Amino acid sequence: MKLLIVSATKGNNHILAEKIAELLNVDYEIISLEDYSLPLFVPGGEKADEGITLDLVSKFENADGFVFCIPEYNAGMPPILTNAITWITVSTKNWRGAFSDKKALIATHSGGPAFNLLSTFQDQLEYMGCTVHHRKISVHGNAKFNMESVERILNSFVKLF
Hints:
Rossmann fold; alpha/beta; 161 residues
């Protein structure tokens, strides 16, 4: 099993991704979407560098599952994640191909509990064919990183495979 741990940013969510990775006993790779210089997707607009999109698509296609570490932005997904997912889906033969029949876990380090993000992103991932773990990891001002809780969530998530 190979997990792709996707951090939308290089800040708190990347730190969260690293903490999660330390608790995993499976093969994984951590990426930050900030490392992929993708232009804003506009239909018929500027094209992305093919090498960048091929690399990103390959990482998603070759993963058995995902852990997404993403902040909530304005009660929704961060624009960098929306943009990356769009480029991935338009760069594959089957737009759901990089996500279909894969497992996903959502984690967030946000200003608040990120209920809207957790709900809407789960819906989107399921629409694209992922099985999303029912438990989420949420770190915010009133909920610090709890290693025991995160270990239980990760152990439960790994059992999906």
